[in-house]
Every structure is written in structure tokens, then in C-alpha cells.
Design goal:
Layout (H helix, E strand, L loop, with lengths): L7 E4 L4 E9 L2 E6 L7 E5 L3 E2 L3 H6 L9
Antiparallel strand pairs: 1-2, 1-5, 2-3, 3-4
Length: 67
């Protein structure tokens, strides 16, 4: 799977949320958001997952759930 730049993902090993900066082969570079704002790290794709509704709510983003 290829991730587009700017997609919000969660690193399942570290529980950090980040936006995709670069997708390069089996790894993705993310830029932290929220408390991790601005810090970049690279992790293998197998550790990536979609953020939960709770994660999104913590950033003030819509969750897709009805009120």
C-alpha cells in the first residue's frame, strides 16, 4: 500500500500520530501532530494503522460518528 502525503496515521508501536511526509518502499516518514508536533520519524509500514475516533477527537478532528 502507498500512502499519500498528508495522510494522518498512527504508529502502533509508539502510539504516536503523524502526517505522511514520504512513502519510500517498506517505510514511511511521518511528521508528528499534537504533542509530537513537528518531530519526524521513519517507521516500517507494518506498524501503521488508521487513527481511532478517540485519537482524532484528541486532535479536534471530525470522527465520522453521528453526535
Amino acid at each position: 500500500m502507498t500512502y499519500r502525503r498528508g495522510k494522518l496515521l498512527k504508529d502502533a508501536e509508539t502510539d504516536r500520530l503523524g502526517l505522511v511526509v514520504k512513502d519510500h518502499g517498506g517505510k514511511v516518514t511521518l511528521r508528528g501532530v499534537g504533542e509530537e508536533s513537528g518531530e519526524e520519524w521513519t517507521c516500517p509500514k507494518y506498524r501503521l494503522m488508521e487513527p481511532s475516533s478517540t485519537d482524532r477527537r484528541g486532535l479536534g478532528l471530525p470522527t465520522g460518528a453521528a453526535p
